[in-house]
Design goal:
By secondary structure, the chain is α+β, with helices and mostly antiparallel strands. The chain contains eight helices and six strands. Strands 4-3-2-1-5-6 form a six-stranded mixed sheet. The longest helix is centred in the N-terminal third of the chain and has 29 residues, at 30-58.
């Protein structure tokens, strides 16, 4: 049985158990059972969908996890004026971005590019990140991922450096980094 293989709690399995004799829920007339059977399919699809979504969320950005924070810029096109303005803003404070261990990824529907003030680094990689992380229909979305890979902030359109630094400097891991940098090593 499919439900038994998905490690669903036994009580959920019992509620939606189908009797082979009536093809319905035990003790319920067949007319009522067909509605329950459809509900069973919806609930099963919902549970499987949620588990797949949580698996996908935890399995992205593995190369950066525990090494760098990631600023992911989702843009429909590489030559978007808002994107270019945003990259120019970050270029003016590149040392501060590096101090906070930030990598900037520009994500379009076709590719993922790592950006530095000197231009794009490495070869473009094809990815489905654009569709996976896009939450609105804004021309540019900015997502901030922490060292643990979790989503820490989201902004539509333009993000000022000061707002970004305030957000990052309030994170517990960043506070630890700043205190360890300030204390002398013996």
């Amino acid at each position: 049985m499919i439900l038994a293989n998905l490690q669903i709690p036994y009580y959920v399995y019992e509620i939606f158990k189908v009797s082979p004799r009536t093809r319905g829920i035990k003790g319920k007339p067949k007319a009522l059972a067909s509605g329950y059977y459809n509900m069973k399919q919806y609930i099963l699809t919902f549970i499987v969908g949620l588990s797949a979504l949580s698996f996908l969320q935890g399995q992205n950005l593995p190369d950066y996890r525990w090494e760098n924070r990631v600023l992911m810029v989702l843009a429909g096109q590489e030559n978007n004026p808002i994107l270019n303005r945003q990259l120019a803003e970050w270029g003016t404070a590149w040392e501060e971005l590096e101090e906070r261990r930030l990598k900037v990824l520009v994500v379009t529907p076709w590719e993922v590019l790592e950006w530095t003030p000197d231009g794009y680094v490495g070869e473009p990689e094809s990815s489905n990140w654009y569709n996976l992380y896009r939450r609105t229909h804004a021309p540019v979305e900015i997502l901030l991922f922490g060292l643990d890979g979790g989503l820490k902030g989201q902004q539509q359109n333009f993000l000022i450096n000061q707002d970004l630094f305030i957000l990052i400097d309030q994170m517990p891991m960043r506070i630890r980094e700043m205190t360890s940098e300030a204390s002398p090593n013996d």
